[in-house]
């Protein structure tokens, strides 16, 4: 069987429906702190990449490592879509057997972005941790992304789980 070889393509402009999300494009790195009643608190290093292929969505890839020993902690991959001028959708797959669909508000002002997202659907494999709800807040200002993540899991109500600050990578 022959595999198709993809030739490098010239850069393409973001789709007009997501042009206002262009400030997110690129790689972001930084650190964060996690806590939850069922686990020990931890610090982590994170890398997030937003990309695009000229279609009406951004690609999203996230990876974290433990700040102390460098071991891999978590990863997510998916898509960020606009559902209108002030609405946003985030579709993610986690390697832990969880899928996540979040929807919420988008505010674009003064070159910055603010997103407030809440899960509308959580999919779980038979072996996944029992996550029942997620919420995310993200703020882009200049070359910094600050975010928080709220989670309901393991019989706990939705509450703060993660907070991080990322800077645009060179």
TrEMBL record:
SUPFAM superfamilies to which the protein is assigned, alphabetical: Lipocalins
UniProt keyword annotations, A-Z: Heme, Iron, Isomerase, Metal-binding
Cofactor: heme b
Pathway: Nitrogen metabolism
Catalytic activity field: peroxynitrite = nitrate
CDD domains: lipocalin_heme-bd-THAP4-like
Motif annotated as GXWXGXG, chain positions: 26-32
Cofactor binding, per record: Binds 1 heme b group per subunit, that coordinates a highly solvent-exposed Fe(III) atom.
Keyword Iron listed: yes
A single MF term (Gene Ontology): metal ion binding
Residue span(s) of domain THAP4-like heme-binding: 18-168
UniProt-annotated binding residues for heme b: 38, 129, 161
Family statement: Belongs to the nitrobindin family.
Purpose: Heme-binding protein able to scavenge peroxynitrite and to protect free L-tyrosine against peroxynitrite-mediated nitration, by acting as a peroxynitrite isomerase that converts peroxynitrite to nitrate. Therefore, this protein likely plays a role in peroxynitrite sensing and in the detoxification of reactive nitrogen and oxygen species (RNS and ROS, respectively). Is able to bind nitric oxide (NO) in vitro, but may act as a sensor of peroxynitrite levels in vivo.
Record protein name field: Peroxynitrite isomerase
Species classification: Bacteria, Bacillati, Actinomycetota, Actinomycetes, Mycobacteriales
